[in-house]
Amino acid sequence: MKLTMIKYISTLCLSGVLLLGSSCSDFLDEQDPSNLTPESFYTIPDHAVAAIAAVYDDTRFYGDGAGIFSSNWQLLEAPTGTSTTETAQNSDLNNLYSLTWDGNTGHIKNWWRGLYQVIAQANLVLEKVPGIPLMEDAQRNAILGEARFLRAWAYFYAVRLWGDVPLILTPQTTSSEDFFPSRTAKETVYDQIVEDLQTAETAGLPWTDVSGRVSTSAVKAQLAIVYLTMAGQPLNKGAEYYQLAANKAKEIIDNPQGIGLFETYWEVHDENLGNTQEHIFSLQYNDLVAANPMGNMFPNFKPVSYRGPSGTGSTVPTLSFYESFEEGDIRTVDQEGYFYTTYYTNGSGDPFDLGAPYIFKHFNITANGFSGQPGTAKDNLNVPMIRFAEVLLVYAEAQNEISGPTQETVDALKRVRDRAGLTTPALGAFDQTTFREAVWRERWHELCYEGITWFDMVRLRKVYNEATNAFDDFVGHVNLNSNQTLQEKHLLFPIPTQEILNNENLAPQNPGY
């Protein structure tokens, strides 16, 4: 933790310049006037704009590399059992697939450092921007609202991954009282997440934002997801929080103002439609800065893109999960839904059979090519974090826990299934239990490979069983991708070993590690 604090909590990276939270003036008699520090930097409104841009930039750790043929996002996919690997050349990724990770696993270390860097940058914005003179209140409030959202976003991942985590709300230096912080009770962390989001909700942000910045609808959607999580495990806050989740989701459903489902699944991964309609919040990618990081979903050395035979196949769907979709589900139709089984040589040439299903959800045809249409080689596709489809399913699940199925909850579920070409039973066909599982099943299929399924498994303590089409208890469920059994310890990841070595206040380690 000490190294993380020094490197991340005390630093601000703006346009490639490293700005230290505590200067090295102890070693010098004079200060270089060109050496920017947080004290000298936050003096004009443009500095606030640059500072919040740095927070957004740091969220892209999500797609950074995690060793050969692997990316950080695979931490959230490999353990779910819905994917497997064609390469098996990354030992850390193999450990995730086989449920044998530990505190030295690279992905786990990267997530800890990445999340706390986002938190560090957000803390600097929240402390320094209020004091910038000659700044319009609307701009100041908006930037502070964005920083609140992004800090909450980071802590929401952290508390779900590790449980009790250090709650750091101010910039840190070596003289800070909590430079070696202890872990904070998870309920307190959740309370701070809610407070940050509620504050962001009143920051005057636009309802939607085609530039990809945080919007009011994104804040409300994130709050709905947080409340749904708090209602379940491990906090078990129950009915009150299910109602909060349902109400917050309903605010978006009842007053969409341009938000809705795309008509086709192609539009979900059309780079020209990023930050519009269904995409409520996404991580922003542009080839000039950072290209879309989902290439590890490409099949292993098959010519599906302009690059020719390439790709790693280190995250590919299991056949059992692919076959668990209902018959006639458009999401499984080749190149129409979320999977593809054929493509075009070098992205735009003759069609060929892939020999297995692969994930099409994050495939950018503009960049990689399509039939007779060469790719641009510039992958500007964003990575979705919150889609309107999830908001509909949050509402359906949460309201069902309060009242049982209603026509409104069935309608919300039906909107998602209608696009998939599926028939949804009428209200009278459901009771609370069967509707609950229908929504869970839809979450597994609609939200697959978006970093959501693992957290559903943890909050529900249930796992979808592709073989039975039912739900097993988390503990004791056998992941079909590896034939390994989920244990109690897998409900949390271990604190990275090096962090505990650097800061003994983070001990004890999470159970089972």
According to DSSP, the number of beta strands is 14
Q: What is the helix/strand order?
A: HEEHHEHHHHHHEEEEHEEHEHHHHEEEEH
Q: How would you classify the helix and strand content by structural class?
A: alpha+beta
CATH architecture designation of the largest domain = Alpha Horseshoe
The gist of it:
The protein contains 16 helices and 14 strands. β1 (11-14) and β2 (17-20) form a beta hairpin.
Which labels suit this protein?
Serine Threonine Protein Phosphatase 5, Tetratricopeptide repeat; 38% helix; alpha+beta; two-stranded antiparallel sheet; 513 residues
Give a description of the structure.
The protein has three domains: 2-202 and 494-506, Serine Threonine Protein Phosphatase 5, Tetratricopeptide repeat, CATH 1.25.40; 206-284 and 382-451, Serine Threonine Protein Phosphatase 5, Tetratricopeptide repeat; 288-380, no CATH class. Helices cover 38% and strands 11% of the residues. The chain is built from 16 helices and 14 strands. It has helices at residues 2-9, 38-41, 45-58, 91-97, 106-128, 137-162, 186-201, 216-231, 239-254, 319-322, 365-368, 388-403, 407-419, 432-446, 453-460, 497-502, and strands at 11-14, 17-20, 83-84, 279-283, 302-305, 308-310, 316-317, 339-344, 351-359, 383-387, 462-465, 470-473, 478-479, 484-485. The strands form seven sheets. It has a two-stranded antiparallel ribbon. Strands 3-7 form a two-stranded antiparallel sheet. Helix 9 (239-254) crosses helix 12 (388-403) and helix 13 runs parallel beside helix 14 (432-446). Mean pLDDT is 93; it is low at 1-33.
